[in-house]
Design a protein that fits this description.
Order of helices and strands: HHHH
Radius of gyration: 20 Å
Number of strands: 0
Strand content: under 5%
Number of domains: 1
Largest sheet: none
């Protein structure tokens, strides 16, 4: 299997093309849609680059928080966490829970909205 160009490189090439076209040739509504497309491509690139590590970290924190075995997938662990919170097994004042929720939210924001002003203090 070949390794070049990568998915990220291909997406970046499309983004560069759209940027070059939209700056010089597009106006009005078409230019707006080109900017939206570029933002989507930026988000997909961040997904590819950051999501695997973010999900692995989330999974590890969930295992520790729920004190369970690593064979459960992240969706099942998130469901179990919701149940533990709902039934009071894990309280909302739990430091590990707050840390997990904060880290998970920050990881998602870094992908979806990396310029979000609230990320600086976090």
């Amino acid at each position: 299997m070949y390794s070049s160009p990568s998915s990220t490189e291909l997406l970046q090439a499309v983004k560069t093309f759209i940027d070059g076209v939209s700056k010089d040739q597009l106006t009005g509504h078409a230019k707006f849609h080109a900017r939206v497309a570029m933002n989507v491509l930026d988000t997909v690139i961040r997904e590819i680059e950051q999501r695997p590590e973010a999900e692995a970290s989330e999974h590890k924190r969930l295992l520790e928080l729920l004190n369970t075995t690593p064979d459960a997938d992240t969706d099942a662990l998130n469901h179990a966490l919701g149940e533990a919170i709902r039934t009071g097994v894990i309280g909302l004042d739990d430091v590990k829970l707050r840390d997990h929720l904060k880290r998970t939210t920050i990881a998602q924001l870094l992908i979806d909205q990396p310029r979000y002003s609230g990320l600086d203090p976090a």
